[in-house]
Amino acid sequence: MSIPRPLVVPAVKRHTATVIMAHGLGDSGAGWVSLAENWRRRQKFEEVKFIFPNAPSIPITVNMGMRMPGWYDIANFEDIRGREEDETGILKSQEYFHSLIKSEIDGGVPSNRIVLGGFSQGGAMSLFSGVTCPTQLAGFFGLSSYLLLSGKAKDMIPKSNPNKDTPIFMGHGNVDPVVKTQWGVTTAGALKDMGFNVKLKIYDGLGHSATPEEIDDLEIYLKERLPPTETTS
After folding, report:
1. From the candidates 111, 120, 144, 145, which is the catalytic residue?
2. Is 23 a catalytic residue?
């Protein structure tokens, strides 16, 4: 599985933190770069480097086997608790996300100044990679997403569980026709049952997309998790 290079928006000031934002099925990193561009225009998160990974092009069963950017194969959109999952693809992508985190740490960014997140498939990978991450993160989030390998995830959490107290943000629309709202509710409940600190916010009238209100809430979350280390005069 060959993974294209991610898009990177460098920090404006001294690089002290990193946000990794993963796209959904059929999309690319470019689809979410506007987040960083908007924050740059408003002089937000100037110490933060933004990484927008690009998923490899793989056959997607639910799309009649046609190739498209995806972090793992999806056989159907049935209930997440009973459907067959592409464990091999999920674990390969998990390894990739963990390598992105390690690369930032090796470059001098403390692990507790790194936030991992994403939308839909990217959010699902971020939640799974976050709870199984061997190092403590500043946070991780999932928008319109769900927990992968829910029957096995608990056993994949490191024994030290470095992210047990790490705040997790989840956002979900109440009319999402693709990733059902109940999947998000079930996921938040499962994470809480595992002992994680998760907050789920449901957005009225939102389908399978993001809304300005949700992005505003994400901005607040990132401000809390990645405060600037330099004071402005």
Report:
1. 120
2. no
Is 208 catalytic? The answer is: yes
Task: Decide: pTM greater than 0.70.
Answer: yes
Catalytic, 129? Answer no
User: How many whole angstroms from its chain centre is CA 198?
Assistant: 14
- Residue from 27, 73, 86, 176 carrying the catalytic annotation: 176
For residue 194, give both structure tokens.
């595992």
Q: What is the pLDDT along the chain (233 residues), one digit of tens a residue?
A: 588 999 999 999 999 999 999 999 999 999 999 999 999 999 999 999 999 999 999 999 988 999 999 999 998 777 666 678 999 999 999 999 999 999 999 999 999 999 999 999 999 999 999 999 999 999 999 999 999 998 899 999 999 999 999 999 999 999 999 999 999 999 999 999 999 999 999 999 999 999 999 999 999 999 999 999 976 54
Q: What backbone phi and psi angles, to 5 degrees, belong to 39?
A: -70, -30
- Tell me how long the chain is: 233
Distance, CA of 157 to CA of 164 (rounded, Å): 10
Tell me which amino acid residue 74 is.
I
* 7 sits in which H/E element: strand 7-9
In one-letter notation, the amino acid at residue 228 is: P
Cβ–Cβ under 8 Å, residues 143 and 210: yes
